[in-house]
Design a protein that fits this description.
CATH superfamily of the largest domain: Aldolase class I
Helix content: 25-40%
CATH architecture of the largest domain: Alpha-Beta Barrel
Order of helices and strands: EHEEEEEEHEHEHEHEHEHEHHEH
Structural class: alpha/beta
Shape: globular
Oligomer: single chain
Largest sheet: 8 strands, parallel
Number of strands: 14
Strand content: 15-25%
Strand order of the largest sheet: 13-12-11-10-9-8-7-14
């Protein structure tokens, strides 16, 4: 349930509503709307059945939420959220781009990658310091040494850092270096990890699981938000289907679905979504056209020598080509939207 306060509601009115909610053993969450404050009720709403909430001073009306996810639901928060990551806004007027190598392989490789990423116009440098791999014999990452290289790259270029955290034990260490913590596809339903990430306070990039439904994905975000962290961004990275040509099947419909069901931003990873560098550009453009709030792409100075995911990594030249195309499309969409608003 959400309780919409009217525009004249005082802080005392809001406090009175919260007191009633807590008085019957439920939890209250305050969200800021465009013009009104919204009080979310977490728990069994039947406990409020005998309480005339709608008649209380300052209350506009109450709305029942039937979905299992509450905080991530657009019913709870009708306005789209904009997530601030160290000054970079995700979900705003401009799509953001996270780019970089799959794995941090060396200081030289990462700093070179960072310069390429910066020159292309991205806002975030991505790179895995901890790499959960299918095979135990594959490169597993440089761990804290890799995190230090990421921090150095940020200092040199001004790029923000997004990197994956794979275990509860590593959260504090990764949060020390990163601007945004990534939950990878394999950990989307690692509920203990989700809870602890929710407590750490850092913005979270939540990738969709290998075969996760939208409902499961939204509920994973709920675990993070329920621990007090509202700063979650979804990342569609393809799901596993019967198709074998591509690494995964990139679910473009997830963009529109998440926009309808949730107020949280969503970005798209066409690198993992296809597994083929040649398909990154058309899928990146399709994602922006579909309304995605940004992209995550793998870029490597020399993909042929990459220790992981070389086949889906863009060369510096291909990366620049994709970025140029994305900027043109984004500008066109923005101008068309502005024109439509003027005509209305």
């Amino acid at each position: 349930m959400v309780i919409i306060m009217n525009t004249e509601a005082t802080q005392q009115n809001i406090n009175d509503v919260i007191e009633v909610i807590k008085g019957v053993g439920l939890e209250a969450k305050i969200m800021e709307g465009a013009q009104q404050k919204i009080v979310g009720v977490i728990g069994d709403k039947t406990k409020l059945a005998s309480v005339p909430i709608d008649a209380m001073p300052g209350v506009e009306h109450s709305v029942a939420i039937s979905k299992s996810y509450k905080l991530a639901s657009r019913e709870f928060h009708p306005q789209s959220s904009v997530i601030n990551v160290s000054g970079i806004l995700i979900g705003g007027d401009e799509p953001i781009v996270m780019a970089g190598p799959c794995a941090v392989e060396s200081r030289e490789q990462l700093l070179q990658s960072a310069e390429i990423i910066k020159a292309g116009g991205a806002q975030f440098l991505r790179g895995g310091a901890y790499k959960p791999r299918t095979s135990p014999y594959s490169f597993q990452g440089l761990e804290e040494e890799g995190l230090k290289y990421l921090a150095e790259a940020r200092e040199k270029t001004g790029l923000k850092i997004v990197t994956e955290v794979t275990t509860v034990e590593a959260i504090e260490k990764v949060a020390k270096y990163a601007d945004m913590l990534q939950i990878g596809a394999r950990n989307m339903q690692n509920f203990g990890l989700l809870k602890e990430v929710g407590k750490c306070g850092k913005p979270v990039l939540l990738k969709r699981g290998l075969a996760a439904t939208l409902d499961e994905w939204l509920n994973a975000a709920e675990y993070i938000m329920n621990e007090g962290n509202p700063n979650v961004v979804f990342c569609e990275r393809g799901i596993r289907t019967y198709e074998t040509y591509t690494r995964n099947t990139l679910d473009m419909s997830a963009i529109a679905a998440i926009k309808h069901l949730s107020h949280l931003p969503i970005i798209v990873d066409p690198s993992h979504g296809t597994g083929k560098w040649r398909m990154v550009k058309p899928m990146a453009l399709a994602a922006i056209a579909a309304g995605a709030d940004g992209l995550m792409m793998e870029v490597h100075p020399n993909p042929a020598k990459a220790l992981s995911d070389g086949s889906q990594s863009l060369t510096p030249e291909h990366y620049q080509d994709v970025m140029n195309a994305v900027k043109k499309l984004s500008k066109f969409i923005k101008e068309e939207n502005l024109l439509s608003e003027i005509e209305e």
